[in-house]
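Interim report, section 4.2 (structural modelling).
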Amino acid sequence: MTKFSDLTRLPDARGHFGPYGGRFVSETLSFALEELEKTYLSLRDDPDFQAEFDRDLAQYVGRPSPLYHAERWSRQLGGAQIWLKREDLNHTGAHKVNNTIGQALLAKKGGKPRVIAETGAGQHGVASATVAARLGLKCDVYMGAEDVERQKLNVYRMHLLGANVIPVESGSRTLKDAMNEALRDWVTNVDDTFYIIGTVAGPHPYPMLVRDFNAVVGREARRQSLEQIGRLPDTLIACVGGGSNALGLFYPFVEDDEVRMIGVEAGGDGVETGRHAAPLSANAPRGVLHGNRTYLMSDEGGQVLETHSISAGLDYPGVGPEHALWKDVGRVEYVAANDSAVLEAFRELTHIEGIMPALESAHALAHAKVLAPTMRPDQHIVVNLSGRGDKDILTVAKIDGVEF
Amino acid sequence: MNRIDQRFATLKEQGRTALIPYITAGDPAPEHTVGFMHALVEAGADVIELGMPFSDPMADGPVIQKACERALKHHVRLSHIFDMVSEFRRRDSETPVVLMGYLNPMERMGLHDFAEQAAGSGVDGVLVVDMPPEEADEVAPLFKEYHLQSIFLVAPTTSESRAATICAHGEGYLYYVSLKGVTGAATLDVSEVDRHLEPLRRLTSLPLCVGFGIRDGDTAAAVAQVADGVIVGSALVSRIADNCERPERATEELKALLSEMRHALDA
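Predicted structure of the assembly:
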């Protein structure tokens, strides 16, 4: 049995989290990944690098983000106290920027004049375009053609920031296909290009470094809980697509055995219908995609399945390898929230607290809504409000039958 | 002796360069694949690389992506591919067949079943594009057990220490990726290829075969100056793409292109 305290020592030297993770890439990329790993490991404990990262997070992103007590909503739900970690208040409106700030610093250290990124909901694309603008780097963002359609506002934001958005027409035309295309670009332009991966997936060392850059969320939340609640929270809840905001929140709490952690995947029409994006909750088989081994939704022939979710950012058939391990060892519970429950949570938080969450984050809220009433008022739940909902207004309007 | 080693030994005796065509199994439809394979042999193929279609072929360019999509429309599975190789073997017991593809379908089938059935159908070697030697711990012993040769890629970006690891694990031949990019990409620079092959010769006695960017007799002949074999994929697959509705025509075009290369190599 893996002790939970061992979990913080992963990945191993080869990038494995138990049976998951690794570096399953074609040979051309091996060198670039080795180089990136070396650069990152040398900078990780470098006080100057950390100071630069912390300064950017404070002065450019606006950290620390508040831990907000949603008193009115808690009262209405009639159970545990709900606290929102307000990543939606970050510059660019989501947790994604923590990671892009970090990776942009790595790109700068590596002397690469061009960055590329994949994006689903567009939040990571916007965050990449933003740091590229600030550092004067050329930026190309790959985005599934279907997502370009449903996230028009973010597409235009990226355009205004000077990035070039490339719609991807292959496969299911969503996040996984954008990632395929970004990897193809990187293989071709590996000499002058840095690939800013937006989630805790991909080949080693990406799952590790994206986690580390996002762990600021959990470090702050832990400190803020001690200050504002007077103790650690009972439960943490975060949505999981690739899983970067969840890992960011959970990682600094991993050794706090008394803190329960719940990852909420995209249940789409319902896990039982097969139309979802919840590989962990559905107990999908192990598989290899985008450079790592993980739980992966694939058919009996090993072909990757199309996923379904109201939120473009969670519409991904795999999940970060560290989550896969945390599921197996029982450190984190993984559940799914269906599209309808997500929409309800989206509307409820907007009405009751005046905070419009991203549809991704509304998955975590939907589960908080289920869980809170089963708990006592002296118990505390921290929900990662990973992004703001402005980008989703057109999606919700369409569901409401409103056209602009 | 394995068919691949046998074939390269013979070619070496004859002083000839290996010609290795690639097609995707089941493209444009499963019933054509075995016919294409025989046609390729008639036109001068020394080894056949048969692609195992995958939904997310991230190392492939648009030509082979579309070939995978066409094959997957017919729900081509690994078991069908083994049937194709068995059928091919009824008329051809000599030409080596190498399966090339991605790890996920193999893992989903079960690596042991994959190795057993591949070997049973007459497959000689396997190239798993997204499995570098560092990740081959589980696969390599199974392939050894079933006498399937592990073919590995070497790229222009491969460092010397990695090249040594790859050469230590590689069997059959080394697949040198002639340029940075995906399959079917731009043109290649022969002197640059030569510069990279030279240190590999000191590391291994495996035949060095070059792929990516070879599209006609001239490029094949140029690469043959420096390599033991030339691999051609996208150029052939696009002939299939152009003639999806006319398989006989596709067969003729495959043969014409491969013959042109064979003549250029043997000239």
